[in-house]
Amino acid sequence: MTDDEKLPAWCSGEGWCPLTATAGMISKKWHPVIIHRLLDDGDKGFNDLKKEVSGISSKVLSESLDDLEDKGIVERTVISEKPFRVKYALTERGEGLEPAINEMIKWGRENMKEASSEEESIV
Amino acid sequence: MTDDEKLPAWCSGEGWCPLTATAGMISKKWHPVIIHRLLDDGDKGFNDLKKEVSGISSKVLSESLDDLEDKGIVERTVISEKPFRVKYALTERGEGLEPAINEMIKWGRENMKEASSEEESIV
DNA sequence: CGGTATCCTCATTGATACTG
DNA sequence: CAGTATCAATGAGGATACCG
């Protein structure tokens, strides 16, 4: 921890809070996974992404991507018009989320593996 | 990063994914702030918390706390019956979220301060 | 103090189908 | 390939009031 061990009181509602702000950016059902997919493999087309985030519908992926683009986390580039093709990549800002994502993964690994092995033993 | 620089493909939907799991735990509007409040000051009563997470209603705080308790992140203790009093604290598992929360805060600070100063100049 | 009970509204998701 | 349109379903979140 450097200089953020304590958040000012205004973080609790009256003003702008970096935690609330960040949560607002990525606290959507699919955002973390989409960002993570983009983090570890680089550029992808729409359907590549759809395959890797399996379970997501075109509509929701599209909306999520739009949202992430608005927020400056993802960048969309049209790479060809004739066979229409785009690519999605993280912006610099988006890549900056890597530590946060990784901490989330780490926590998930540490704290939910027992739950998942219990599940297995129930099965 | 230790051993989580790349998540297996099954993270994309078919199986259990630590990232999705973690996101599922804390991706609620008030969860990160509540956890953070509990992180930096220790035990709190219901109304202490309500004051610090200003803007939240009793109902939503109560629901959030129940949810966090179910998930083993928060622990509720009744400390006295006569003047009825409870305290909320993070469990060990909950405290383990500190790095993730801190990374979120860090990211928020780095990436949204420009946006907030722009806002000021608009105002 | 520490919550519940209601009721209501809006946002998010999902399934399905269709388009340039 | 890369989406959009539509519509239905769910559920999170909020306002207000009340209870042990």
The gist of it:
2 copies of one chain form a homodimer. Chain A has one domain (19-111): Winged helix-like DNA-binding domain superfamily/Winged helix DNA-binding domain (Arc Repressor Mutant, subunit A), CATH 1.10.10.10. The first copy, chain A, has 6 helices and 2 strands, in the order ααααββαα.
Describe the structure.
The structure is a homodimer of 123-residue chains. The first copy, chain A, is mainly α. Chain A has a single domain, classed as Winged helix-like DNA-binding domain superfamily/Winged helix DNA-binding domain (Arc Repressor Mutant, subunit A, Orthogonal Bundle). Chain A contains 6 helices and 2 strands, in the order ααααββαα. Chain A has helices at residues 18-26, 31-41, 46-52, 58-70, 92-95, 98-122; strands spanning 74-80, 85-90. A two-stranded antiparallel sheet of chain A has the order 1-2. The interface between A and B is large, with 53 and 54 residues. Chain B binds a DNA duplex (20 and 20 nucleotides) through helix 3 and helix 4.
